[in-house]
Amino acid sequence: MKGILLAGGTGSRLYPTTLSTSKQLLPIYDKPMVYYPLSVLMLANIRDILIITNPEHLQAYQNLLGTGEQLGLRLAYATQEHPTGLADAFVIGDSFIGQDNVCLILGDNLFWGQGFSTQLERAVEHIQTQGGATLFACRVKDPQRFGIVEFGPNHEVINLIEKPQHPPSDFAVTGLYFYDNQVVKMARSIQPSERGEKEITTLNQRYLDQQQLQIERLGRGFAWMDMGTPESLFEASQFVESIQRRRGYHVACLEEIALLKQWRLPKDIAKSSERYRGTAYGAYLQDLLQEI
């Protein structure tokens, strides 16, 4: 399975902060925002990843992440000239995806919770063996603000509703989507909505109409954040700081994931950590290496 990390858009809700930089490069406590969704793809054992961003920000992502070799990844890059919708990511990434299945994650989403890796691996296995689509949903206190999943009496998905006035559930669709390879053909056939975008909701509805859509529910105690506003940006930074200070381990430490999955050797991580010398992030990596 391949991965697409969508880091485009204008970030207009964060103006003036994002007038001269990409939203997904803004810091969330001690690391760039893009580290958090990238860590999710890594936890799902996805190593071939396409990062889609705006043309003016492409070089910045390449400077930050390079080819991904230092993390045991194979990174590719593409640009989205205009905000043409989430589903357009599969059209842009057509040649990258090839004949593979694909996971799309939005570059401003943060996920954290026990057992998440198991759920990710289960979603990948389901797509690889049975096809279709798997979405992740999380309980929210204000479901009117989100795309909501409606469940039937046997917990099956019966409808997807965008920002309903009277929500049938409080489970919101997050920015994490797993699809089989037919998603590329589907995305090409979608007509732009009234706002001129290929909507991901339309794509998901097609899978639901074919009875090929399932939901992974993120349980109690799980954190999901959309870091697209000043308030949520601040809240996410506070959350990460609290977890790291209280638990003693880092959230979304990419080198740690690469090391634990044995994609890179300790000597490789030691070499990479030199660039972080004198920082708390570098000290954390040094402590990891000493524990091995």
What is the helical fraction, as a range of percent? 25-40%
Strand order of the largest sheet: 5-4-1-6-11-8-12
Low-confidence stretches: none
Helix and strand content put the structural class at alpha/beta
Written overview of the protein:
This protein has 292 residues and is an alpha/beta fold. The protein is built from eleven helices and 13 strands. It has helices at residues 35-43, 58-65, 88-92, 94-97, 116-130, 182-189, 200-209, 230-247, 254-260, 266-273, 280-291; strands spanning 2-7, 27-28, 31-32, 48-53, 74-79, 102-106, 109-112, 133-139, 147-151, 157-162, 171-179, 213-218, 223-226. Helix 10 (266-273) packs antiparallel against helix 11 (280-291). The longest helix is centred in the last third of the chain and has 18 residues, at 230-247. It is globular and about 50 Å long. The model has no long low-confidence stretch (mean pLDDT 94).
